[in-house]
Amino acid sequence: MISRKIYFVCPTNPHPSGGVKQIYRMVDILNKNGFDAAVIHKKADQRETWFPNNTKVVHNPYLFKLIKYLDKKKLSISKKLKLMYLKKISFSIETDSILVFPEIYSSINKIEPFTKKVIFNQNCYYTFNGFPLGSSAEDFPYNKKNTLETIVVSEDSKNYIQTAFPNTSVHRIRLGINASIFNFSENKEKIIAFMPRKLSEDSTQIINIFQSRNNNSDWKIMPIDNKSENEVAEILKKAAIFLSFNHKEGFGLPPVEAMSCGCYVIGYRGQAGKEYFNSEFSAPVEDGNILEFVLKIEEATKVYDRNPHEIINKGRIASEFVLANYTISNEEKDIINIWNDIMTRAEEQE
């Protein structure tokens, strides 16, 4: 049993979020393997419920108020009083613990400055959000001595962080797809599924152009929004085609989950998706190329109308690729190896 506590700061998201799910999963894996980890939420009754979990959750409104005031140069008396009150009702974070922050927060080194930090960066393209133009190297938490590690989820993100911060320690975990939920089905229907909150400006154009050009098509367009994990999987198992609107992604889970369910995925790779978009079993589209996107949808629907098994077989190959390369066991192995190394370095710095 490893006694040093690990707290994962988890943002509030009104919609189902793959990034939040990954935070929960890492906490579960750590606790399963003898670490002492917990998710920190802001409110006392807060827990993600759109996917099944028994993850250890604690609450600290004081910490989240500190995050909110990060970029405030001066606090009013009322804000200071509010902080004092929240500190009184929140648990104290142990000085020898490790705080894990997502990439969306900026000057995290100002929060609990003597506590060691790890950055779980699930989208490298958010790394500099909150930092003004002309910030110095000392401003970035990635360059701080008490930032023990940056954990990323793709080769693209690893290259990005290593290029931006050559002296920081960065390791990549291979995300795992839950094959008990997202698994291959050959019982496909003429359904084109997509996530409407991703690049809605593009998806509106692409779907409207497709429907304008194919007015008599019997293909059903199915947006996936505000669904549970199991509901998403059920739709993907029925859908013959999934549209990817990846955009500057740290990884891009939706198209990978769609591939795992046997969908023929058409669309944007979003940088990180270059590692799993393969023309053998998917149809990558140059980011932002609306007309190419439409034409590739048309091509796939015509092939399916003529010979469904041709598209279904591509989906089968995609599923085999995903379930061979993005396994839960690989993810767990990577997480444990990285955190054993982090704990060793934390002890060495004492």
Automatic annotation (TrEMBL):
A family per Pfam: Glycos_transf_1
Taxonomically, which superkingdom?
Bacteria
GO function term, MF aspect, one: glycosyltransferase activity
Q: Which keywords does UniProt give here?
A: Transferase
Q: Does the keyword Transferase apply?
A: yes
InterPro entries (UniProt xref): Glyco_trans_1 (IPR001296)
- Which residues does the UniProt record annotate as the domain Glycosyl transferase family? 225-314
Q: Where are the transmembrane segments?
A: none
Q: Return the Gene3D superfamilies for the record.
A: Glycogen Phosphorylase B
Keyword Transferase (UniProt):
yes
Q: Which Gene Ontology BP annotations are present?
A: lipopolysaccharide biosynthetic process
Protein name in UniProt: Glycosyltransferase involved in cell wall biosynthesis
